[in-house]
Write a structure and sequence with these properties.
The protein is of the alpha/beta class and about 575 residues long. It has twelve helices and 33 strands. The strands form nine sheets. Strands 15, 22, 25, 28, 29, 30, 31, 32 and 33 form a nine-stranded mixed β-sheet that branches. The chain has a five-stranded antiparallel β-sheet with strand order 1-4-5-12-11. A five-stranded antiparallel β-sheet has the order 6-7-8-9-10, with helices on one face. A hairpin with a 4-residue loop joins β8 and β9.
């Protein structure tokens, strides 16, 4: 669909134009789902202006913003060109005149909602009395992306502690580190020296990273400036005791790797799909992230076994015993395995026995724990879910060697999660090369087995690990999103050399699983048969993209790409 140019100029509805006024009470819905904005909408004479990225992406368009110029495209090649403060615009190459131009409020660029929505072919209804804007797109998943049931096995490989810019910040075509003539544009303040540090090519195999709890995420983001990474690392480093290597300052968090260090990861991006707007679902550390991975929530509950006693927990859900807890953790809210078991969908959570090096608060200092099949841990929370125990599913949590055997024998479950041990996790100070070799082995195991032709593999990293990233995370609720992490999609039906610019989080994995195996049923306490007190149904957040767009199910299944270097 090209952009519609009809009825996009008559923006004032015959009313004299006035200065902008805050419209905090205006609610904007796209296809029935309310958009959440970090900058409140602004109203001018019954016309609502909203932050540009949220509205473009909720309507299925990709936006590029640079030096006051806004360029948006959709999947059919249509385009919108806007300039801040200018009434002149272009839609599909045709000049138009805006009554109200885009403008900036508190560092956020606001665009006219009606113009953008109608240009994208959507219908807009504004009830001024109720302060509600309803946008309806009638948008369908792109042709070739709708035969999801060709995927019989979904595998999520979750690594540790890397931001997108750290691994793919210089990947061609991706939304990577902004450059001026080949030099990184950002220079992040270094409080220790009174200077600043630019992103730099770090060839070291062993990195340090920075703290990554909730407070650290807020410090790194710094109100959208994305310039607190070095200060956060140095602040945490004050508590180090030499000769611990983390005590040497914060420069390391500004380092990035290239194809030289990440040959296999970049090869997967070259041949399959790279996602450059994958965000951690929560703005904090590993345990909440892994809780989101399997249940779409991180919570702390006041009564054991009572899912209605749970409330949001950004940093402090119940921790395992080896992280300082005095009683074993209990997670009574509903996780995805409840729906899988209820619908006779096979699943497994494969665990590599060993150390889990993250700390209880995501800082760089403190106690460390272990991960194991029978050991509830920050990377293996499923043994502590009431549903897993009640449903008799603890046996589905298995050692990693069983995954390798299942891949070889063609007996993979429908849904698979894979959790590493410290040595293979890429969690600092683990070696990048060791983690990459481990992931390559896992992928090679699937590609060389009989289930490859019906499998989708998703690879990501559970949090940003304190490393620099330049993209401001979208705000969807009190817990997230967190900072950007890399995402890869590897499948015989994955598009080739495709960069997915949709806004995504680990919620998209759950949504894809639900759409493939559960008829679109969600972890929604109103409909899933097991009420809990979660405030957000994350799969239904309006800005969340659809992973089906990463596939072309009309193509013949692609041959495996077995890479060298896969080993433990």
């Amino acid at each position: 669909m090209r952009f519609s140019t009809a009825a996009v100029i008559a923006l004032c509805l015959g009313v004299a134009c006035a200065a902008p006024a805050a419209a905090q009470d205006v609610a904007v819905y796209v296809n029935g789902h309310q958009l959440q904005f970090d900058q409140p909408p602004v109203e001018r004479d019954s016309h609502v202006f909203v932050p540009l990225r949220g509205v473009f992406e909720s309507l299925g368009a990709t936006v590029v913003y640079a030096k006051g110029t806004i360029n948006a495209t959709n999947a059919s090649g249509g385009s919108i060109h806007l300039v801040i403060g200018s009434h002149d615009t272009m839609v599909d190459g045709k000049p138009l005149v805006l009554y109200y131009p885009p403008f900036v409020v508190d560092g956020r660029t606001l665009v006219p909602l009606r113009f953008i929505a109608q240009s994208l072919g959507a219908k807009v209804d504004y009830d001024a009395a109720k302060q509600v804007v309803n946008v309806s797109t009638g948008q369908q998943v792109a042709a070739g992306s709708d035969d999801i049931h060709k995927i019989k096995h979904i595998i999520v490989i979750m690594q540790e502690n890397r931001s997108f810019d750290t691994y793919f910040g210089t990947y061609p075509g991706a939304d990577g580190i902004p450059m001026n003539n080949g030099v990184p544009a950002a220079c992040v303040p270094d409080p220790q020296t009174g200077t600043c540090i630019r992103p730099y090519h770090d060839t070291q195999d062993r990195n340090l990273g920075g703290p990554h709890g909730g407070n650290n995420a807020a410090m790194d983001i710094n109100g959208g400036k994305m310039d607190g990474f070095v200060a956060s690392a140095e602040h945490a480093g004050r508590f180090c005791k030499p000769p611990h290597p983390r005590c040497g300052g914060g420069k390391d968090v500004m380092g990035y790797h290239t194809r030289d260090e990440l040959a296999n990861y970049w090869s997967y991006a070259d041949n399959f799909v790279l996602q450059d707007r994958m965000f951690e679902p929560n703005a904090s550390w590993s345990l909440p992230s892994h809780l989101f991975l399997v249940s779409e929530w991180s919570a702390l509950c006041s009564r054991a076994g009572d899912p209605m006693s749970c409330a949001n927990a950004l940093d402090d859900p119940m921790k395992p015993l080896d992280f300082g807890a005095t009683v074993p953790p209990d997670y009574p809210w509903t996780d995805l395995t409840y729906l899988l078991h209820k619908n006779n969908v096979s699943w497994a959570y494969y665990v590599m026995e060993g150390q889990a090096p993250d700390t209880a608060d995501g800082s760089m200092n403190g106690p460390q724990g272990r991960v194991g099949v029978h050991t509830p841990g920050i990377w293996n929370p499923l043994p502590s879910f009431d549903t897993v125990k009640t449903d008799g599913q603890l046996g589905n949590i298995q050692p990693l060697r069983n995954f390798v055997s299942a891949a070889k024998n063609g007996t993979l479950p429908a849904v698979v999660w894979i959790c590493p041990a410290q040595q293979y996790s890429e969690h600092p100070p683990a070696l990048v090369s060791t983690g990459q070799a481990y992931v390559t082995l896992l992928i090679n195991s699937v590609m060389q087995g009989p289930d490859w032709s019906s499998t989708a593999i998703f690879v990501s990293w559970d949090d940003w690990g304190g490393f620099y990233d330049h993209v401001v995370p979208p705000h969807v609720d009190a817990l997230g999103y967190g900072l950007r992490v890399p995402g890869l999609v590897i499948s015989p039906y994955a598009k080739k050399a495709y960069i997915d610019h949709q806004t995504l989080s680990f919620d998209a994995y759950v949504k894809f699983i639900e759409d493939d195996f559960l008829g679109g049923n969600r972890l929604d306490p109103r409909t899933d048969g097991r009420p809990d007190s979660r405030p957000t149904v994350r799969e239904n957040v309006s800005i969340l993209g659809d992973l089906r767009s990463d596939f072309d199910f009309t193509q013949a299944p692609r041959a495996p790409l077995v890479l060298q270097g896969g080993h433990l």
